[in-house]
Amino acid sequence: MDLWGWFEERLRYRAAETFLEKKAVPVHRFSFTYYTGGITLFFFLLQVFTGLLLLMYYRPTSDAAYESVRLIVSKVQFGWLIRSIHAWSANLMVAAVIVHLAVTFFSRSYRRPRELTWVSGALLLALTLAFAFTGYLLPWNTLAYFATQVGTEIAGDVPVIGRALLVLFRGGEDITAATLSRFFGIHVAILPALATLLLGLHLVLVQIHGMSRPISVRADRSEPFYPHFVLRDFIVWVFLLGGVAALSTFAPWPLGEKADPLAPAPAGLRPEWYFLFMFQTLRMLPARILGLEGEQVGVVLFVVLGLILVFVPFLDRWAPRGRSHPLVTVIGVAVVLFVAVMTVLALRGGM
Amino acid sequence: MDADHRLDPAPRVRRRTFLDYAFTAGLAALAGAVFYPVVYYLIPPKSKEITHESIVAAKTADLAPNSGKIVPFGGKPAIVLRTPDGELRAFTAVCTHLACTVQYRQDFQHIWCACHDGHYDLHGQVLAGPPPRPLAEYKVTVKGDDVIISRG
To answer: Is B32 part of the contact surface with chain A (CB cutoff 8 Å)?
Structure first.
């Protein structure tokens, strides 16, 4: 028996080949939205790859973390590039996830039978933010130290279990070397394991159901996934790689000063852009709402909104029947506007 | 002559073939651009290790006859010992077999490597076991109370 026959008998790869040959992608005026998932995947893979490289030199202790990152960006050949790509790509990945979520929402692609694809995607958004939050602390610089201080303090505002959550996140009452160890473990082991599982499910579901055709699109034109769509996807990836490399070269991510737990917090401290709207909302809430602490009300509100986001496919009663109800669009636009306005207010340092 | 040329045109590279080559070359260039920095990244940066030519390894009073001491010397362990006869000697403590750190065995009265039962005499020569070569010897000088070992 020939070699390919031997492998075919064991791996059954011809089934995958047949699947790939038959797979088609709908063609219509919203087809560009199909690239958003691939773009997110690209940034994720880039994060995995550069993250593994950073692990070669990074040391996760409060004494050595900052120095090891400084070694990477100053002494290791191309270390500045790898580290900057990791930081830039992290931000771009968050942006890509948000765009992917938005186009999926507005095209109602979550409707039957893709509800679980949406749910796994919403959970992947949570994982992405957790990746960003834990990774931010790892260089152990002043900004990261205080951002983590504030961020975990907000977790302490969750009613009843807040205090326990705070201690669980920090590995104690305060941000210490224990917090760094914990965040490191979460960032490089727990989250990657969860992300691999969820992303695997997400991608399998996409293969099972194929690309969703928006409700308003009546035409059923399509093109082969391979090679037409794959090659164009690949070109997008090449441009993204070039873009990230250029950003990292011309605007390298700063390292900042080493964190000093006894130093006063620097002025103008604010979280990364994707957390700004929450930060701004919590700041603008009155100190007391209906006899409750304002911050607590805000945190509960965001937890509820997060849950609503996860269950969107089950709340939109119209989409499964092929109707794009304007109410859903209005709510979506309102959320986008709210997040945008709050972010702008926070950036302008407004009240 | 002219007629021959017309009958036998030069072989042309077809458009499709050209594009295939261009695409492959583009892929190769991309792979090169990605892996060049990665390979260089993986090469560890040169650390400024200060290699002293000599160090103060011990105080004379610390080394009783028939005893030894392991000290760091240029980033690697060295063994300085006093023979039962009272003579001071120093060797590299890296076993020539598989680079374990050797020790002075007072009961054997010679140097011994625990990993694979290698025995060296008090001149670093192999007595028994797997080590293929003797231990390199260092020069020992005594200056006041200090036992100084040096390469040489």
So the answer is: no
